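User: What would this chain look like folded?
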Amino acid sequence: MATAVSTPRRGGTGGRTAVAARARGVVKAYGAGETRVVALDHVDVDIARGQFTAIMGPSGSGKSTLMHCLAGLDTVTSGEIHLDDTEITRLKDKRLTQLRRDRIGFIFQAFNLLPTLNAIENITLPMDIAGRKPDEAWLRRVVETVGLADRLKHRPTQLSGGQQQRVAVARALAARPEIIFGDEPTGNLDSRAGAEVLGFLRTSVDELGQTIVMVTHDPVAASYADRVLYLADGRIVDEMFRPTAESVLDRMKHFEARGRTS
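Assistant: Here's the prediction, encoded as structure tokens.
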């Protein structure tokens, strides 16, 4: 699979784009012998800096496993993963934890909010742990964009599921990490709220140079990305640049049809 990253991002000026993260020969296997299951099968991929990348594929294709390995949330069986110039596959647990805290943002379907903290305290928690002060102007923009300005003093139990996910999105964006990983980040939001969050993620890429990697099954969500990677059986089998919801859906139908006839 080619790992070209020369296509300019939407709103960009063209030219070759730097690589924010890369995987080389990555294998992730579970079990041994006859029970061995290969989730990732010698994956090579580059994640372009300042771009929005979506990862798609059928259930069991390895898309979430790939994201977890790129983010340092899961170990690899073999191969290498680099975040910028740092090879994360060789880091000790303490150093890897620090790297995830300081340089990576996460958005998952499970909100992972602390019930004893209110919304703004949950948003700034990673920076508080790191001893860093937030950029107040940026923090206000994040909060206003995800519609939380009147909910900052509410604890998670006082928020709806959609509002809790907005807190999680704001928390990932607030510290301006080098790269944000999202696993179905709008999966628990209604279509309007999801569109607002995806629009802000798109804006954070175009205007602020944020790098985002998102696992999704939703063609509409994928249409916000610059590039879509398609996984099947633990391998990257295709990619699409400047996707639309219709083109993504057509491509997914093609893979599903091929899967039924194989």
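The beta strands are 19-30, 37-48, 52-56, 78-83, 86-87, 104-108, 179-183, 212-215, 227-232, 235-241. If you want, I can go into more detail on any region.
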